[in-house]
Design a protein that fits this description.
heterodimer, A: mainly alpha, Formate dehydrogenase/DMSO reductase fold, B: alpha+beta, Alpha-Beta Plaits, 2 domains, 4-stranded antiparallel beta sheet
Chain lengths: 477, 175
Amino acid sequence: MSQPAPKAPVTADPLVTHPLIAGRYSNAELNESLMRPVLAGPGRGWWVLVGICSALTVLLVVAIGVTLLKGMGTWGNNIPVAWAFGIINFVWWIGIGHAGTLISAILLLFGEKWRSSVNRMAEAMTLFAVACAGLFPLLHLGRPWKFYWLAPYPSELRAWPQFRSPLTWDIVAILTYLTVSVLFWYMGMLPDLASARDTARETWKRRAWGLLAMGWRGSARHWLQWRAAYVVLAGLATPLVVSVHTIVSFDFAVALLPGWHSTIFPPYFVAGAIFSGLAMVLTLLIPARRALRLHHVITDAHMDVLSRLLLVAGLFVAYGYVQEHFFGWYSGNEYEQHAMNILRVGPYAPIFWTVIACNVGVPQLFWIARLRTQPVVLWVAALLVNVGMWLERYLIVVAPLSEDFLPSSWKHYAPTWVDLSLLSGSLGLFGLGFLLFLKLLPPVPASEVKHLQHELEASEAFAREVAARERSAGGAP
Amino acid sequence: MKRWVLGEFRSPERLLAAARALRERGFSRLDAHTPFPVEGLAEVLELKPSRLPALGLVGGLGGAAGAYLVQWFTQAVDWPLNVGGRPLHSAPAFIPITFESGVLAAAGAVFFGLFVMCGLPRVTHPVFELESFRSASVDGFWVSVAVDEAAQLEPVAETLRTLGAVQVSQVEGEE
């Protein structure tokens, strides 16, 4: 059977309609366009955004100062709502990080080629999100300067941390996640740091990137070890990312509170984490692609596949909601039923239905193929999902605490200005980190994109060869 | 003092063909410098498979065992704290930290092992003396042949030229 020679570029999957790399470039051209963000000076837009994010970071510093000087009383949480913004923000930020690891590690193991041009930015997002996440439990300790009490060190008090408590699990999980993410990110960046070193004209830039590149020479021996190490780290990061949000969910699921004590929590949290992280990837990627002129390597194919993933993760989350409410009702326990009823029809109904609209409703747009490649639609949808996922964590943390077993101890929660400043300040810190990353370190893995293009060209050549052989065989119908 | 002859090729296929030809002519101290990994090059250069996965396994098991021991010792032996009558040595509650520590140790072992295996970090290397070698991380596919005697340099350079290298250079220095 003969087929027309496939239009460039072909991929292994005949269902893929959008190219992964738009057009064909020489390696030098690719290198030039992918290193341009770090080699060229920043534009005005970058400085404006850095100004805004720095102002928010100052607000964060002020709010942390107030918390440390005046104490935890400046936050809105109290008995019965003992956990509020501190834990909501923590869960939200740590969840956002998960999509970075999904893209960088899980998709590597699955051999998904499209990850090549977006994985660096997604991993950077992970790092800054996890750093922001770590801030909140630290402050929530009340006396953050005693954080080392959570580590098993031979103390003169002759006491050890209580390792049967999810709090200590959390510390180990978060620190491991942060460390492994940094190692994976840095290892993946070594060849591109060498490339930046060799492309830069200014001596100080060559020296700075030269030091960071650690003397990478792209030797065949380096690549052999690097590829082995990269796959092993991806294999380690994959179960890690699932375990981290599982352990975060244990903070709730191990407690006996109605609305928290549920076996659906670990998978439901992991799905929510990946969902919110994908939304944050899109939120950052769409403007970054435009500002850094990366349309040739971050194409409609990437938008298409990310929005599909958003839809799939959204369906997992929707299933989690259904299960949560079903089991609340099916338990036959009036406290469990109450914890779910206050969400649907009680005081939390406005927030709950906003969550449903953002997290279940909005992703359904992406059943329509045309909308999956519309950057504006995707960006607005991603923002709505970000908001929806934050509100979902608000409901998870605050609602069950505010109305538990004893109606006489019910009390509703309101954040203070310190809470709100910490949240907006952490957004500023996250944005500042990401903006600095875009200008200081190669934001797109140039070596991986060059490798990908070489693979695509080889696959095109193969397809042409097969077509030519079939034509010359003459047996074509 | 070590000496290298370096030749630049313009595509991975040409590099691979040249490396194969060099091996057939009996050159064994070969290396290549490329902007991205070239499939099949390790086989041509007869490089041994990486031992980093095994190192990761050992590191991971060690980290996990260490974490479990610390938990068992602190909870069940050194400071037995009765929490609602639950067992002091409660293995299920020790799993999360055991797993996380195993992953952390494995990742650390692989990461630092990579640097040891690659002989990095190092700030200088004789090949960096060559200005045109900057293309090795951009779009040049370099092959390097190590030689002992200065007299061998020119014949090797000539071989590289006949194999189609677009430019050939010689560097010397301490490895």
